[in-house]
Each structure stands twice: as structure tokens, then as C-alpha cells.
Amino acid sequence: MPTSAAARLRELLARQDDIIVCPGVYDGLTARIALQQGFDCLYMTGAGTSLSRLGLPDLGLTTLPEMLANASTIASLSPSTPLIADADTGYGGPLMVARTVRACMSAGVAGLHLEDQVLAKRCGHLLNKELVPRDVYLSRIRAAVLARQEMRDLTGGVSDIVIIARTDALQGMGFDEAMGRLEDAVAVGADVVFMEGVAGKEMGRVVCERFRSKGVPVLLNMVPGGVTAEMTLEEAREVGFGVVVYPGLMLSAVYEACERVSGELKRTGRVEKIKGMGPKVLFELCGLDECLEFDKKAGGKGFDGGV
Ligand SMILES: C[C@](O)(C(=O)O)[C@H](CC(=O)O)C(=O)O
User: Pfam families from the xrefs (predicted)?
Assistant: First the structure.
């Protein structure tokens, strides 16, 4: 039987000696660019979704329909490549979290993370985050686990998703509360833990040792310029992290490049050619040849003369 993306993600997570590297993507084009590079797994950033789809900051403004549309577009491009999606707070109470999980599973998302901020959340690297009580957080994780079980039962085990418990408690409540929340989340069925803003390698080591001994992989959120201590991939692997996501990777590159070329056009009235690129290069990156082949196979004649 072909492996689903979630099953593939579980396989990757089971490799104790390796780390899964996930570039943060936020739309079809950035996903295609990462896929072309041959990454094993992609990460859909919520901040990037908010910035690119809404043009607004990561302040709890994106809702399920927007996040889901983005995740399902990205997941559809390479169904065998796992996509981990940011699912923020799950967007409501237990019923809403369950709806989020079912929708992500149906869209082919391989893993998602749920956090313990209030619904009016903010990026984990901003100050003064407000958190829900631990029991409310656990009801979110429990709802996710129950919804997954329902979907597994309905599909004879075909449908699956990796549930990643994120806590933002470190910043305002301290390390022990953050650890307690993650331990409880695992006790109710979370598969992977994610402590936002790990302050350094030593802290990372304590988290990884505690969870890896229970067979639970730990995710590292690498946000240069944010509150997480910067670590190279080698260091993250050595500390014991099982997954590392780079949410801002494409965003910063795109911002830098777009600011440069638009500034150049505004100032000088012209733009140096970038890589001598015409539109066809981008269409090819995004499956032009496959589209033409498919159309022909189906009996279409529209592209017989070429494009
Ligand atoms: C991981 C994250 O939730 C995201 O939206 O990608 C953000 C990252 C960011 O804002 O760069 C977060 O850490 O809260």
C-alpha cells in the first residue's frame, strides 16, 4: 500500500539518529521552490500565511478557512511529502479544534501543532503572551486526539495525522510549567512536543532528554532574531531535537529580494533582469510540463502546438 504523508512523517520521526529539516513555506510557489530542493518535509508557517494571505501580522487574525486553504494547496503539490502545518490554537473550543483536525486530515496535512495561547494569540516571539489554563490547553489536545481517532476509525486506519503539542508557557510561566504542560499533553496523546522559545542548548538538552527517553520527538522552532537561542542544524541534532522548522526562511528571502527590485524600479525606472528569467521558468517550476502531458493524455488538443 502506498504510504500516506502522515505515515511517512511517522517513519521520519522514528529515525532516532537523524533530524527532520523543514523549510517554512507559505504558498504554492514557495512550496514548489522547497520541493525542487528535495526536502523530505515542509512546514507551513502561520505567520507567513497571515502575512502573505492577509497582509497582516501574526496576531490571531487568520481563521481556519484561510489556514486550511493554504495548507491544502501546499499539501496537494506533493502528496507524498509530509507537510507540518501551524494550526495555532485550533481556533476555538474542543469542537472547533476537532473540526480543524478533521479538515487538516482530509486535506492531506501530515502533522499540525496546537498551542496554549488565548484565541487572540500573537507570534510566539512577541512579548506579553496570554495563555489559557492548563486544563483548557489539554482539552484542545484531547479534542485533537479524539478527532484523529474518529477519522482513523472511519477510514479503516488510512487517515492519520501527527499531533504536535506546542507550549508558549516558558516566557511568562517558566520552565517547570512549560515542561508540565508538555508532559500532560503527551499523556493525553500528543506525538511530538514543541517548547516555544527554548533559551539555549542546555535547556534544549533537558527537554530532549526528558521526552526522547519516552520515545517522544522534540521540535525546534528556529526563528533568527526571535527568542529561540540560535543553533546550527548540527547543534540541534547533537542536542537531541528530532525536527527543526525554519518558519521565516522564505519570508525573509522574499522580503529582501522584493524590496530590492521594487525599490530599484521606483528609484531608477528599470530593473536589472533577475537570472534572465521569463515567466516560463516559473511555470516549469510549478509543473508546466506535467500539465501539458496530462492534458494530452486526457485527449485535450489545446496545447498541441506547444506553449
Ligand atoms: C512558528 C510560528 O507559529 C509560525 O507562524 O510560523 C511563529 C514563527 C514566527 O512568527 O516567525 C511562532 O513562533 O509563533
Answer: PEP_mutase (PF13714)
- Is CATH 3.20.20.60 the classification given to domain 5-255? yes
115 is catalytic: yes
Closest to 148 in 3D by CA, of 137, 138, 136, 162: 162
Mutational test site, ligand 1, from 58, 70, 170, max ligand atoms within 8 Å of CB: 58
Task: Please give the biggest Cα pair distance in the chain.
Answer: 66
Q: Which atom of ligand 1 is nearest to the CA of 196?
A: 13
Give the sign of the dihedral formed by CA 20, CA 237, CA 244, CA 287.
negative
Note whether ipTM > 0.90 here. yes
Please tell me the pTM assigned to this model.
Answer: 0.97
Chain centroid to CA 219: 11
pLDDT tens-digit profile of 162-176?
Answer: 999 999 999 999 999
Report the separation in Å between the CA atom of 226 and the middle of ligand 1, taken as the mean of its atom positions: 9
117-152 per-position pLDDT tens digit: 999 999 999 999 999 999 999 999 999 999 999 999
Backbone φ and ψ of 193, nearest 5°:
-115, 155
Which DSSP string do the residues of the chain spell out, in sequence order?
Answer: -PPPHHHHHHHHHH-TT--EEEEEE-SHHHHHHHHHTT-S-EEE-HHHHIIIIIS--SSS---HHHHHHHHHHHHHH-TTS-EEEE-TT-SSSHHHHHHHHHHHHHTT--EEEE--B-SS---TTSS---B--HHHHHHHHHHHHHHHHHHHHHTTT----EEEEEE-HHHHH-HHHHHHHHHHHHHTT-SEEEETT--SHHHHHHHHHHHHTTT--EEEE--TTSSSPP--HHHHHHHT-SEEEETTHHHHHHHHHHHHHHHHHHHHS--PPSTT--HHHHHHHTTHHHHHHHHHHTT--TTTT--
Which atom of ligand 1 approaches the CA of 247 most closely?
Answer: 6
